[in-house]
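Help wanted!
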Amino acid sequence: MKRTISVLVENKAGVLSRVSGLFARRGFNINSLAVGETEDPAISRMTIVSEGDEHTIEQVEKQLNKMIDTLKIKLLEDGSSTRRELILIKVEADTSTRGEVIDIARVFGAKVVDISATTLTVEHSDRPERIDLLVDLLRPYRIQEIARTGTVALEKGCGTIGYKNK
Amino acid sequence: MMTGAQALVAALKKQNVNTIFGYPGVAICSFYDELSTSGIRHILVRQEQNSGHAASGYARITGRPAVCVATSGPGAVNLITALATAYMDSIPLIAITGQVSTDLLGRDVFQEADITGAAEPFTKYSYLVKNPAEIPRIIDEAFYIAESGRPGPVLIDLPIDIQTAEFDPAAAQVARHLPGYRPTTKGHPGQIKRVVAAIAEAKRPLVCIGGGVIAANAQTELQTFCETAGLPAVATMMGIGAMPTAHVNYFGMLGTHGKPYANYAVKQADLLIIIGARVGDRAVSAPHSLEGHAKIVHIDIDPAEIGKNLGTTIPLVGDAKTVLAQLTEAGAQANCGEWMDDLDDQRRLFRPDFDHRHDGSINPKVFLRSVSMSMEDDSILVCDVGQNQSWAAGNVLMRGGKFLTSGGMGTMGYSIPAAIGAKLADPGRQVVAVCGDGSFQMSMCELATAVQHHVPIKIIVINNHSLGMVLEHQDLCYKGNRYAVELGSSPDITALAAACGLQAQRIAKADQCAEAIDRLLEADGPALLECVISPEETTP
Ligand SMILES: Cc1ncc(C[n+]2csc(CCOP(=O)(O)OP(=O)(O)O)c2C)c(N)n1
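Answered by r_m:
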């Protein structure tokens, strides 16, 4: 089962390597990991998507919590969180196929952000499953390169992770 | 103005550090320069690993973090085994390593090693200091992290230019900043009630004592709890000594090399109350097999231990000392007279191998029991790894003293440096190290340390001229193909010890034991007794 874990950590050197080291050492899977500064520059948010059974995810949560640099951690449920991923796809497209690629992008609400005689670059932000679908649909046109961010997520509604720095 | 090295010495003094164990090199020389006039005693070990083990022995007696120091590169890397050993057994250490100058970091210069990176899996936390003004805060945080919650080693890597750099003490960072670190000590009252109810309901309850009880200094609370609630108890290797061996409620060490009646108790129990134990594979080889027939109460200060190796019915996060007192206060009471009688019978039926050997040679089990009986009640026994460890763990009679060993990592060579540390921590207490000839040779260089610094430890080497535990394993699992386990007859251990300046004696016959033990324990300075036994002596 894939789970999305939101972790607030202190924004300082070495934290990312501690987290990734922890996952590697204990044999936990990382499907994706995204890090960025929060509203408070002293704090970063890591959004980690990890795959494992109930027991493993509980251990992931506990081991992350045990880290000195971890401020707060929360498992985000798919139904009650907004999850997004950003993708850039460079796909082959000449005059004969350009229109089809643009059509597909339009259906997804994706943007065409760059063009050359032989390629189009599509940018899209969406739920991870929809990003996967977009990739599948563009695959027949020969994808040249992909850059994807990991998933980032926030709870829906007024709920937050519940941490305030004093 | 003040230098980083001065700030470090001042911060250590503020923590009441009066002894540190170390080994210098150029990347830590500025600190040593300050140390020389600080009044802090420096014990020069002979290899950095042993500074960590000695600090471990020291910390386990004082209950406070102990300090070990090494230089950059090879010095720092030599420390890793000791850090890993301390980490596994939750021992609070402060490791200070010299580092190359900050402007050279990352360039693979002479004696540069990424020690914070390399030691990451074996430290509770680590710092690479980049500004001397941080030192007062970092030392304060490091001690707090090392000793609070689940204790463990903290490493501070200190580049040489930071040691020599000057800063204005008025600009020093002093306030602790650890917003993400909040260890729990008190058990949740609701969970306490559930445990009390489970104890009342159980027909065959059993307490399983781990090293956490000793780390929390909760021996008294544990005994009171077991006595007032009427509960039987077993211990892991790290829990040995928390209850006196002869206590009526105590049923010995469990596990691979444990007592059959202790393992019987674990198998038959319908309620296991695990306190401060990791449920490691040496203690419970198939933890999941217990889940079906026993309710599991797991009490630990580290929430991540609960449920890690064993499904738990009632998790209880807290400090063993506090939680045990809470349980007693809440009126925990077992009704298990029949079960106690059953366990009592099992214990009585067990026939230990205390037999005389036909050739008059020494039975190591009888020998180690006699040693422990000759030792003072509050003495400290440090044992190494191998058959000697199992013989000691299984046969010493604890009566309020301490049993120190490398339980989690099983690091050979631990006993001699750890004994030096323990003795320096409490010079009034008798300290005896027990090791095999293999483990002795891993840290025999520290004999010189004991002599140079006048540390009157007593060392017992059980010499079977082999790596006995591995030999036995080859006998059992590799059709007796004994390979690379014979140590031959060099060195002459007694002569070597004498050359280092210890009072040394060798025995090989059972009838020599009593006198030799007395002589060893009565020796003024450091002394060694080499006890030659047959390589055919087995663990059980
Ligand atoms: C540093 C280290 N290396 C290897 C081992 C594997 N090992 C476990 S017990 C043992 C033999 C110990 O021999 P000795 O110290 O002579 O004790 P004995 O078993 O003979 O009592 C070895 C090699 C270990 N535990 N630690």
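OP: Thanks! One thing I noticed: The longest strand of chain B covers residues 93-99.
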